[in-house]
Amino acid sequence: MASSHGYPFEKRHCLSIADFHRPDIESLLSLGEHYLDLSVQKSSERSVLAGKTLVNLFFENSTRTQKSFELAGRRLGADVINMNVANSSVKKGETLLDTAATLNAMNPDILVVRHGASGAPALLSQKVECSVINAGDGMHEHPTQALLDALTLRQAFNGDFGGIRIAICGDIAHSRVARSNVQLLNMLGCDVRLVGPPTLIPSNADRWGADVFHDMETGLAGCDVVMMLRLQLERMNGAFVPSKREYFHFYGLDRTKLGFAKPGALVMHPGPMNRGVEISSDIADDPDISLITQQVETGVAMRMGILHALSDAQDGIA
Fold it and tell me: What are phi and psi of 80, to 5 degrees?
């Protein structure tokens, strides 16, 4: 299965979208699609990761992502260990390298890491002997979220990404999801836009390979998909936005602003949502236009696909 499209998946880690080529991405998406079938996902065979150990090492809280990886690992037959870092020796002064030494002694096969510092998963990958998956590092990247978003779009557009115009809107500056998505969607041939207030758009965003807009009307014009981002107040030091109410007035997605996009435009949000801040509930909960529930459902399948591919690469299965 890991050699979909006749292209062997040989990557050891999943740290950054930039580490992959288009055929790698196609192989991962095909595997994710394979596991979208719940009868396959819940099969009693569960042999792909049988005898292997998956460790979830989350330095930042993320119930959604951690549980998604835990479920994905268990459905593939892995032994899953969740390390509660908040109560561990890491909080008592243990360094990341000490943690790597401890992990090596446990002999895991796959390590899933979320960390507040950009580059922490990449550093760990150099110090441990297992495969490492970046489940979000600082404001850097979140590659598995980008992959599940791409799989959600692949389903919605029947596999044809070419020419899809996507607006990623809101708090771009603090979003690792935006960075990974821009890279991946560009690779798949989409037309990507970034929309948000100047205070929430990085100064180098025009070099990301996306057009930058500061108002929703021009930014959403002709877009097939509108992806809203969470306003990450916990990462903001200073007044990036005047108030939540004013932010919603100018940049929150409501029916009026969605009307600027192409008729029938679809809506996404990586979650968790701040309703009434980035997006109105009537749009988020509208099954005719919202892909948000599908994104959550796709998460487990896509992560099963990633775990499957990395395991096969470890075993030399091409």
Answer: -110, 130
CA 7 – CA 5 distance, rounded (Å): 5
Q: Is 232 left (phi over 0), alpha (psi -120 to 50) or beta?
A: beta
Residue 271, phi then psi, degrees to nearest 5: 75, 165
Q: What is the DSSP string of 31-47?
A: HHHHHTSHHHHT-S---
Question: By three-state DSSP, how is residue 14 classified?
Answer: strand
d(CA 281, CA 276): 7
Specify the 3-state DSSP secondary structure of 257.
helix
Cα 117 to the center of its chain, rounded Å: 17
CA of 74: how far to CAs of 135, 204, 317, in Å? 17, 41, 21
The pTM assigned to this predicted structure is 0.94
- Are the beta carbons of 214 and 198 closer than 8 angstroms? yes
The first and second tokens of residue 78, run together, are: 């892995």
5 φ/ψ angles, rounded to the nearest 5 degrees = 65, 20
CB 230 within 8 A of CB 271: yes
- pLDDT digits over 56-77, tens only? 999 888 888 999 999 999 999 9
Helix 96-106 × helix 120-127 angle, to 10°? 50
| Ordered DSSP codes for 170-189 | S--TT-HHHHHHHHHHHHTT
Token pair 């561990």 is found at 88
Sheet containing 131-137: order of strands:
79-84, 53-58, 110-115, 131-137
